[in-house]
């Protein structure tokens, strides 16, 4: 006996990667951003500036900590040399006993400036992360850029390229106002 075959042959289904309009890899789900392209680009620029500033301050902080704990020196500006009584310009002086009387302890200033700059850096991370609607793990990686020396430069380069690629691949994903 002859086995009957259907008149229409079943076609293999398309994968989500080959389906038009799907940039996320999830079937039927379109990529959406949390803001307009202009808002995302503004957040990206703000993040880039803060990443470089925070990374530079972190390197300065590391150098200051090495000077303090390895050599027992603080960075001072102004004041009077405690040993000679001469005016002190700018440079390193003994931490214990105090090498400079009066003046500004720039070592402490570096600590304070980096701390507050890191807070603003975290705000820029959160703004970019929320506009891009990324997973929480990416926010953690962004935040680590401000506490691990040199990491902010590499993370900024990676995420900058990723944002540009996502914006180019999904021009329809921005909110329209």
Write a concise synopsis of the structure shown.
The protein has 177 residues and is mostly helical. 51% of the residues lie in helices and 9% in strands.
Question: What is the element layout, followed by pairings?
Answer:
Elements: H1 37-71, E1 73-77, E2 80-81, E3 90-94, E4 100-101, E5 104-105, H2 106-132, H3 136-144, H4 151-169
Antiparallel strand pairs: 1-3, 1-5, 2-4
Helix pairs in contact: 1-2, 1-4, 2-3
Describe it.
The structure is a single chain. The chain is mainly α and 177 residues long. It has 4 helices and 5 strands, in the order αβββββααα. The chain has helices spanning 37-71, 106-132, 136-144, 151-169, and strands at 73-77, 80-81, 90-94, 100-101, 104-105. Strands 3-1-5 form a 3-stranded antiparallel beta sheet. A two-stranded antiparallel sheet has the order 2-4. Helix 1 packs antiparallel against helix 2, helix 1 (37-71) packs antiparallel against helix 4 (151-169) and helix 2 (106-132) runs antiparallel to helix 3 (136-144).
Q: Write the H/E string, N to C.
A: HEEEEEHHH
Low-confidence stretches: 14-25
By DSSP, the count of extended strands is: 5
How would you sum up the global shape?
elongated
Round the Cα radius of gyration to an integer and report it: 27 Å
* Structural category: mainly alpha
Strand order of the largest sheet: 3-1-5
Q: What is the mean predicted local confidence, pLDDT? A: 84
Question: How much helical structure, as a percent, in the residues?
Answer: 40-55%
Count up the helices.
4
Major sheet attributes: 3 strands, antiparallel
The first-to-last residue Cα distance is 66 Å
Which range does the strand content fall in?
A: 5-15%
């Amino acid at each position: 006996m002859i086995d009957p075959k259907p008149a229409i042959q079943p076609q293999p289904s398309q994968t989500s990667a080959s389906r038009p309009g799907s940039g996320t890899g999830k079937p039927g789900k379109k990529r959406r951003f949390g803001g307009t392209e202009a808002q995302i680009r503004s957040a990206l620029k703000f993040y880039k500036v803060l990443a470089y500033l925070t990374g530079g301050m972190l390197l300065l902080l590391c150098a200051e900590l090495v000077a303090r704990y390895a050599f027992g020196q603080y960075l001072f500006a102004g004041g009077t040399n405690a040993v000679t009584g001469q005016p002190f310009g700018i440079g390193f002086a003994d931490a214990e006993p105090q090498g400079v009387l009066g003046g500004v302890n720039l070592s402490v200033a570096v600590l304070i400036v980096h701390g507050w700059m890191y807070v603003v850096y975290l705000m820029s991370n959160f703004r970019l992360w929320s506009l891009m609607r990324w997973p929480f793990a990416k926010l953690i990686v962004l935040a680590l850029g401000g506490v691990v020396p040199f990491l902010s430069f590499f993370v900024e380069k990676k995420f900058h390229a990723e944002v540009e690629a996502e914006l180019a691949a999904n021009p329809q994903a921005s909110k329209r106002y």
